[in-house]
């Protein structure tokens, strides 16, 4: 009887612990890392385009980037931080290091987001992305405002 009560107590404690962790801000861990990018188009005849981090080529953009990540997906985030927000990142090198994390945190704070320096879906939706044309025209708009697809 005492063993059953002990096991029940341990089970309850474990369930409460799992519940607490489920509510923690570590939800980013459940979101996959961005491993590639996709090209989004906008405007008449799809003249404008931007490149947004995704999971796999042309995959979902519901992903995260954080310190230690590298690749073209990081480069396009750096490009947007530099062009649209005037963040000095030095060389745009596709490496998510301390300068990129600090720049992203400053931009997140200016957008009213938690300045954690981690790129994820909330940051993606609030960012104004660097849109271009083949004629090198440039402007900054959110994915929503650009009616991106």
Give a written overview of the molecule.
The protein has four helices and four strands, in the order αββαααββ. A two-stranded antiparallel ribbon has the order 1-2. It starts with a helix and ends in an 8-residue tail after the last strand. By secondary structure, it is of the alpha+beta class.
Write the layout of secondary structure elements.
Layout lengths: L1 H21 L13 E7 L5 E7 L17 H14 L12 H13 L10 H6 L2 E4 L5 E4 L8
Antiparallel strand pairs: 1-2, 3-4
Low-confidence stretches: 1-25
Q: What does the overall shape look like?
A: globular
Main beta sheet? 2 strands, antiparallel
From the structure provided, what is the oligomeric state, counting identical versus distinct chains? Answer: single chain
Summarize the structure.
The protein contains four helices and four strands.
Keywords:
alpha+beta; 4 helices; globular; 4 strands; disordered N terminus; single chain; two-stranded antiparallel ribbon; 149 residues
């Amino acid at each position: 009887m005492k063993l059953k009560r002990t096991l029940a107590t341990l089970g309850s404690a474990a369930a409460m612990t799992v519940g607490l962790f489920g509510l923690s801000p570590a939800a980013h861990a459940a979101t996959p890392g961005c491993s590639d990018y996709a090209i989004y188009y906008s405007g008449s005849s799809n003249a404008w385009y931007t490149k947004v981090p995704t999971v796999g080529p042309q995959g979902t953009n519901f992903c995260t980037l954080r310190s230690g990540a590298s690749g073209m997906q990081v480069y396009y985030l750096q490009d947007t931080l530099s062009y649209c927000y005037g963040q000095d990142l030095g060389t745009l090198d596709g490496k998510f290091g301390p300068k990129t994390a600090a720049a992203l945190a400053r931009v997140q704070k200016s957008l009213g987001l938690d300045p954690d320096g981690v790129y994820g879906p909330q940051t993606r939706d609030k960012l104004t992305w660097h849109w271009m044309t083949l004629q090198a025209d440039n402007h900054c708009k959110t994915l929503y405002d650009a009616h991106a697809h």
